[in-house]
């Protein structure tokens, strides 16, 4: 379990984190959500012992300030900005970190296999793609098999394909029983990984809610444009309206307001009504 109690961090007169309290239950995943400057990364750095702070942080009953080394042994950390020796191979890097973490030497190859890099261990880290480097960082965080995984904006530097692959790996780690605390500003990460979300603004906790409720609470909606045949447009408008969707006719189809987790719902409704959708696109 991770417990933040009245965490406060000031830089001179500026308060970066203001009286922040929350708990992450064992084998659960909590996301810190908020814009840049909300205090998410500062809270993580306090947990890692990189910043002095007021208040308390506990991990599995250990005080992060008084028992910092013991706490850090229980944490696996994936930073937002990665820093590796680019001329070292992926395997050499994993073996180097295994020695630092006092993990068995065999763990180096095991974690590379776990994150899908077993065939790339001979490659210099500098030759790996961004997604591979992020997977390597996850593998290094798992070397000592820590009970808690901490990630700071884990997919911010990845393309769509890399994000999907990395989130799939994290979902597997989560299902294996790790407790996870991560920062994010991406709805798809929240939906794929988090049980709960702590919404932050200006260093304070604004609200906490189940991950599935976040888009609705924030009023985050997108528009789904569906392309239909001319004679299908009017029936589609009627059926979607009856289904509770906000819908409008638009050119060669209709535009439907959807929540991020319900993008496919209008298509399923029309399919059940035997109305074919010729094409679709998302409009933010």
Provide a descriptive summary of the structure in words.
It is built from 10 helices and 14 strands. It is of the alpha/beta class and 284 residues long. It has 2 domains: 217 residues, Rossmann fold (3-Layer(aba) Sandwich); 62 residues, Alpha-Beta Plaits (2-Layer Sandwich), CATH 3.30.70. The protein has a 6-stranded mixed β-sheet, with helices on both faces. The chain has a 4-stranded antiparallel β-sheet with strand order 2-1-4-5. Helix 4 packs across helix 5. The model has no long low-confidence stretch (mean pLDDT 91).
| Residues in β-strands, percent | 25-35%
Number of helices: 10
Tell me the distance between the termini. 38 Å
Q: How would you classify the helix and strand content by structural class? A: alpha/beta
Mean pLDDT: 91
SSE sequence, one letter per element: EEEHEEHEHHHEHEHEEHEHEEHE
Q: How does the overall form come out from the CA principal axes?
A: globular
At CATH level 3, the topology of the largest domain is Rossmann fold
Question: What is the radius of gyration computed over CA atoms, rounded to a whole number of angstroms?
Answer: 22 Å
Low confidence ranges: none
Count the E strands.
14
**What is the domain total for the residues?**
2
CATH superfamily of the largest domain: P-loop containing nucleotide triphosphate hydrolases
Classified by CATH, the class of the largest domain is Alpha Beta
Instruction: Strand order, main sheet: write it out.
Output: 6-7-8-3-9-10
Query: Biggest β-sheet: count, sense, barrel?
Result: 6 strands, mixed
Question: Could you estimate the helical fraction of the residues in percent?
Answer: 25-40%
CATH architecture assignment of the largest domain: 3-Layer(aba) Sandwich
